[in-house]
């Protein structure tokens, strides 16, 4: 019974990962990531050096999107808005005005489907623990 309950919990948590990332084109996401994201976030999702140290303008370098970073700490909706609208605009929409982000907006550059494919690719690279943790941050639809 305990084994079944654990399996059900893992399945339910994974299911909450959000329908936005389910059934996405991971290969297209990988290609789009390489074309539009890797220049700042690294070809291997490693981010920029000293990504936790702000520059002289108070802006943090691009963080890693692999399991060593904090991308998996955020829900799908924020990750999508952050990419589409840019970091500062996405955070301001959530009432966070005191954080300077260097993340540009990709609205008009990437379609919504492209953004979801990129996010699905990024998530696909995380170990199960990080995937489950991130899934738990998403609200059921």
Automatic annotation (TrEMBL):
<dbReference type="Pfam" id="PF00034">
    <property type="entry name" value="Cytochrom_C"/>
</dbReference>
<keyword id="KW-0349">Heme</keyword>
<keyword id="KW-0679">Respiratory chain</keyword>
<dbReference type="InterPro" id="IPR036909">
    <property type="entry name" value="Cyt_c-like_dom_sf"/>
</dbReference>
<protein>
    <submittedName>
        <fullName>C-type cytochrome</fullName>
    </submittedName>
</protein>
<feature type="domain" description="Cytochrome c">
    <location>
        <begin position="24"/>
        <end position="126"/>
    </location>
</feature>
<dbReference type="InterPro" id="IPR051459">
    <property type="entry name" value="Cytochrome_c-type_DH"/>
</dbReference>
<keyword id="KW-0479">Metal-binding</keyword>
<keyword id="KW-0408">Iron</keyword>
<keyword id="KW-0813">Transport</keyword>
<dbReference type="InterPro" id="IPR008168">
    <property type="entry name" value="Cyt_C_IC"/>
</dbReference>
<dbReference type="InterPro" id="IPR009056">
    <property type="entry name" value="Cyt_c-like_dom"/>
</dbReference>
<keyword id="KW-0249">Electron transport</keyword>
